[in-house]
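A brief tutorial aside. Many learners find it easier to grasp structure tokens once they have seen a single protein encoded end to end. The record that follows does exactly this for Serine/threonine-protein kinase RIO3. Read the sequence first, then the structure, and try to relate runs of similar tokens to stretches of the chain.
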Amino acid sequence: MDPVGIAAGAGPGAAWQGKCPWGAPNTTSMSCSLADVMSEQLAKELQLEEENAAFPEVVAVAEGPFITGENSDTSSDLMLAQMLQMEFDREYDAQLRREEKKINGDSKVSISFENYRKVHPYDSDSSEDEVDWQDTRHDPYRADKPTTTPRRGFIGKGKDITTKHDEVVCGRKNTARMENFAPEFQVGDGIGMDLKLSNQVFNALKQHAYSEERRSARLHEKKEHSTAEKAVDPKTRLLLYKMVNAGTLETITGCISTGKESVVFHAYGGTSAIEDKVIPAECAIKVFKTTLNEFKNRDKYIKDDYRFKDRFSKLNPRKIIRMWAEKEMHNLTRMQHAGIPCPEVVILKKHVLVMSFIGQDQVPAPKLKDVTLSSEDMKNAYYQVLNMMQQLYKECNLVHADLSEYNMLWHDGKVWLIDVSQSVEPTHPHGLEFLFRDCKNVSQFFQKGGVAEALNERELFNAVSGLNITADNEVDFQEEIEALEKRNEDHVQNHGKKQSMFSSNGDPPIYDE
């Protein structure tokens, strides 16, 4: 056989035998001495080789002052302390960043602990040319505030001396002081414009800012604590809600009338908790306005009324308005017992008075001044009013004090009296004056309406009051009325008692000792 062919045929088998995976690997033993095994440096090198083999990607250490190896001088205690402090500062800053991220989250408004960080100049991410002005305490686009004058009152020397009374310095200080005004007062960027305000202008602006602040406070209080036209304040809404919730009222439909001192709403009645009391199907809710503007000139109707005189001086102005509603309730009750056509009182809650509704299907009865009556109806209405005035004076012991065609309704062929909150007794210091004014209003209205039988104001006064005051003119008539009132008031001051009724025989009043 050819030795060359045999050698070629045996070649692959020999190569296969050398690369057999089941073959024992050829390991070369490394000889080392006991001193090398015990060497600490050799152990570190072996450990580093194992780490490099397990983690081939080595994270580069940030360049900085922490240089390990031969370049670091660890023999100096000061250098070691500085390095440890820098490492502590880095950890502290990282903790602050984590706290910021945890607190802010996805909020649009974020907080920053920038002022609490301990960042060194070489540790800054930005270059020296790039500065984030939001992270600095000084804003280059914001004008500097004027410097304060030292205690001695001047700065500089010689010709360059500047006192605290300098016009430019005072002007800039006044501009800076405007920032202390209320937030609602827009002052603009006066410092950035280098605006210089004189003392006179600054004082005027300061006074105006304080006035506007007090005015806004008053408006806010008025909005919260007062009843506006065709609206009610939160406390009144709560009272109305409680009435509906208790079943006294079924529903409140809306406003039907507004006046100087009250707002009237229409409501459907519900069921009463009291068995004997029946609530009308339709009710009128009279809400007295809690503003005091309309009552400044009307306190004389209540403070001189002996029924409320002892309580008047002890209450604050807002509680007087509740007393005003209470007074109307008592007056309506008297009229109802006398049989005078008037609203029936349902319930009173503070300054909210619920009465029966004069009208039908949410349509209030028209006032006497708005209705067109025939001559017969006008004559009938006049005698009804005359009879009601006499009943009101003699049986109810009251004077309406604001009787006119505006406070009389025409419903079902009858005249109804409303708005008796200001009504007083005849023994009131001005009771007879109020009666004469009522007689004058009634007489003029019906005389203009074509009622030939209508008496003039003096005859109507004597017919209602039963007093026989004879005078040729109106001036003398009023003087005699004032004399009667003065005599009655003197008696009250001397004896402390009031006469219940005036005499009807024309003689001076007989006082009840």
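Self-check: Confidence is low (pLDDT under 50) at residues 1-17, 57-69, 121-137, 497-513. If you spotted this yourself, you are ready for the next section.
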